[in-house]
Amino acid sequence: MTVRTRFAPSPTGYMHIGNLRTALYAYLAARHYGGKFILRIEDTDQERNVPEAVAAIYKGLEMAGLEYDEGPDKDGGYGPYVQSERLDLYKMYAEQLLGTGAAFRCFCKREETGQEESEPTRRDPCRLLSEDEMRARVNAGESFVIRQKIPDIGSTTFEDRVYGEITIENAQLDDQVLLKSDGFPTYNFANVVDDHLMGITHVMRGQEYLSSTPKYNLLYEAFGWPIPIYVHLPLILKADGSKFSKRLGDPSFEDLVNMGYLPEAIINYIALLGWSPGDDQELFTLAELEKVFNIDRISKSGAAFSFDKLTWINGEHIRALSVDVFHTLAEQYYPEELSKYDTRKISALLQVRTEKLIDIPQSVAFFVSVPEYDASMYHHDKSKSTLESSLAVLRAVLPLLKTLTSWDNDSLFQALSSFGKEQGYKIGTVMWPIRTALSGVFATPGGATALAEILGKEETLQRIEAGINILESTLGK
C-alpha cells in the first residue's frame, strides 16, 4: 500500500499553529513511509472564505518547506483539488445515498427551526415523510438539504492509531447535513468523498473530530468503501490549559515568523507538540524529522505551547546557520546608519547571542549612537570594576590607543592585555570600562576589542573620551 496523506485547509485566514502541525505530521508520514502528500483546498463554506487566504496557504507551506506532491497546481490524476470545483461529484454521491436510503431530503426551513441548515439535529422529522409526500414537495419547488440517515439503534466502533478503539452509540449522533440547499456540500460529507476518491490512506486531523468519526464511517459503509486509517492529533494548549487558538488572539505561523522566529525552528518545535522521537533529542532539521517520524510516537495528551522553549530552539537553529546565511537574514533588520561599518563582522558577533531576529535592531542600536547611560554602569562586581578604577583605566588607555598603528581585534587585545599586566589589573577590570564607554549598554554582541575594531579608531577614542567625561562629572574629578 502506498501511503497517501493530505492537508485539507479551509481558506478562512492565515495558517494557525494547529493547521501547521496537521500539515507537518501528514507531510512527515508521507515522506517517512515513502508515500504522497496531497494539498486539497476545502472552500465549501462560502461565507467564511477569505480571498487572500488561499495565497496564505501556499505561502505558509512554502515557508515551512512542506512540498506537496499533488494539489491544485500539481495534478496527480485525482483532481480537481479544490472542493468548489467538485460540486457535481458531491451531488452525484448524495443522490446515490438517497437511492439506497442512507440519506433523505429535509425541507425544514431555518426560520421554522431556529437553526442554520447545517446545524446538527438528532433526528429530523423529514426522515418520516413518505415517498409521495417528498416527491410532492420537490415538485412544488420547495428547497431542501440532504441529510444523512443515522441508524436509531446500535453503536459505531472505529480504531484510531493514537486513541485506540472508540465506540459511540448511534443515538448520540445527529442526522447531519450532507448537501446544502445551494448545492455545496458540508465539510463532513465532502471530506469523506474526496478522501476516498483521492485514495487517502491516512486521515490526520485534530482530536476535536473524534466524535464525528462514527458518522464518517457510516458514510463509508453506506458507499461500500474501505475505511482509511485514522490518526487524531492531541490538542495544543496554552500555559493556562486553554486551547491554543488563532481566533482567541494566539499567533499564526506567519505571526511567529514576523516575531523573529526561523521557519525551520518553528517546524522543529511544532513537531514536538504531541510527538517525541523516543530519546532526548530535541533539535531537528526537516530532513531529520522525515527519517525519524513515526505515527506510533504521537501522544494522546495535550501539548502545552511554550514560547520559552520555542525561543531556545530558535536560538539553537540560528547558531547552526553559516555566518553568510545569518548575515543575509540579519541585514534585513539593520538600520541604514549601520552601513558605515563592516556589518558582516557585526553579524559574526551577533549570531552567537541572538535568539530572535526581531531583537537585532535593539542589539545593534549602540553602534549607531551610544544611549544616555548612568555612571553606575561602570560598577561591575565580577570584573572588579568600580567607578574610580574605571576612570583610571580609561584615562590610561586613551593615550595608549592613540599610538596604535594596527587596529584589529588581536592587536587591540594584545595591547590592552599587556597594559593590564603592567598595571596589575585583571583583564576584566580593563575591558569592562572600555566596553561600557563604547556601548553604553550592559550586554553587547562582542567584547571591548571586537567592538573597537568595528567602530574604528576615531569613533572608539571619541566614545572613551565621552566615558571619561561622564565619570569625571559623577566623581567630581
> What string gives the helices and strands in order?
EHEHHEHHEEEEHEHEEHHHEHHHHHHHHH
Average the pLDDT over all residues and give the rounded result: 92
- Helices, by number, come to 19
What distance lies between the first and last C-alpha atoms, to the nearest angstrom?
85 Å
Question: Rg to the nearest angstrom?
Answer: 32 Å
Return residue spans where pLDDT drops below 50 for at least 5 consecutive residues. Answer: 111-120
Number of strands: 11
Q: Share of helix among residues?
A: 40-55%
Query: What proportion of the residues form beta strands (DSSP E)?
Result: 5-15%
Multimeric status of the protein: single chain
Main beta-sheet annotation:
3 strands, antiparallel
Overall SS class:
mainly alpha
Note the overall shape.
elongated
Lateral arrangement of strands in the main beta sheet: 3-4-7
Task: Provide structural commentary.
The chain is mainly α and 477 residues long. The protein has 19 helices and eleven strands. It has helices spanning 17-32, 53-64, 87-100, 110-113, 131-139, 187-197, 213-223, 253-258, 263-271, 286-292, 307-320, 323-331, 343-351, 360-368, 387-403, 409-423, 427-439, 448-455, 457-475; strands at 4-7, 36-39, 103-106, 145-148, 155-160, 164-169, 177-179, 202-206, 229-233, 236-237, 303-304. The strands form five sheets. Strands 3-4-7 form a three-stranded antiparallel β-sheet. A two-stranded parallel ribbon has the order 1-2. A hairpin with a 3-residue loop joins strand 5 (155-160) and strand 6 (164-169). The longest helix is centred in the last third of the chain and has 19 residues, at 457-475.
